[in-house]
Amino acid sequence: MISIKVHNSNDSTLMTTRSPQDKASGSTSTVRVISRPKATRIMIANGKGGVGKTTVTTNLLSHLSLLGPVGLFDYDTQGSASFWLSLRGEREPVITRFSTKAHDRGQVTRSWMTHQVAQKARYVVTDTPAGLSSPLLDKLLIDTDIVLIPVSPSQIDIHATAAFVKSLLLNPQFRRRPVKLGVVMNRIRKNTLSFHKLEKFLSTLDIPVVSQVRDTQFYVKAAEAGLGVNELSQKSPADQKSWVQMIRWIRAYESTVPKAADRSSTQKKLRDGTEQLLGVPFSDDEPVEDQGQKKG
Ligand SMILES: Nc1ncnc2c1ncn2[C@@H]1O[C@H](COP(=O)(O)OP(=O)(O)OP(=O)(O)O)[C@@H](O)[C@H]1O
Ligand SMILES: [Mg+2]
């Protein structure tokens, strides 16, 4: 009879087998089975420009870097997140930038690439461009665990975000394998009319609001220095709370098996809520690609 012993370690499983012959000779055979990638892959996306995608990417990275090794995929040709990383001092926790070039050129699949990355990072955050096209979204959704959607409180952003969420829910890759969705309310100023309008819109979606991020110059200052707001010498507890909440939500997700979103009811609520808010019909037949708007 062959006896098998299994030992789990962080990134692999060791199986030690012992056959009768092994027993006689006093030897064992060991096989290492690499288990599935352990990195949690988070994509920051909204077809609308200027809503805070890069700000959420960089601050999430700087906060997550306290939990373990982290990596950045920058899919925006403007390269703002990569530029931020180039400004980062050596005293701060290291954030690795993973090149997206081989993937862009079709030389490797995203699965292969993320598998390589997973060996080096506990969390991987992907920054995406404004006007994210359906084919790119389709490609990026492969091997993504969480999509965080930043939205800021303006009528135009709300409209564009509604269209983006719709395009996400209709995306073929998302329909095949729904990922966890969350909204980040960015640049908020409480007790303003625009804040309440945004809250009302978001309450119509079946997507949780993960965190609220204040509108403050600390974010501008931190961006200029390659830092997160947590790494500034002067920081505010209110800002820390936003990121702690976001990370708690991510950690809670990690401890569960993600449930497939009920897309049809989400879509209906989204449509009804948007119509109610904007006072105009929001057609399901609108071409979703045309809805993403560039900043400026
Ligand atoms: N919470 C905030 N408080 C103050 N300023 C902010 C905040 N979030 C973002 N900003 C500022 O708003 C501008 C746009 O933000 P950011 O670059 O993160 O948006 P984006 O969605 O990545 O834009 P793009 O679509 O062009 O890539 C930047 O100047 C940024 O510093
Ligand atoms: Mg950006």
From TrEMBL:
Question: Which residues does the annotated region (Disordered) include?
Answer: 1-29, 260-296
Identify the CDD domains for this entry: ParAB_family
Note the Pfam families from the entry: CbiA
Residue ranges occupied by any CobQ/CobB/MinD/ParA nucleotide binding domain in the UniProt entry: 42-226
| InterPro entries in UniProt | CobQ/CobB/MinD/ParA_Nub-bd_dom, DNA_Partitioning_ATPase, P-loop_NTPase
Matching Gene3D superfamilies: P-loop containing nucleotide triphosphate hydrolases
Q: Kindly provide the name given to this protein in its UniProt entry.
A: CobQ/CobB/MinD/ParA nucleotide binding domain-containing protein
Tell me which species this is from. Answer: Marinibactrum halimedae
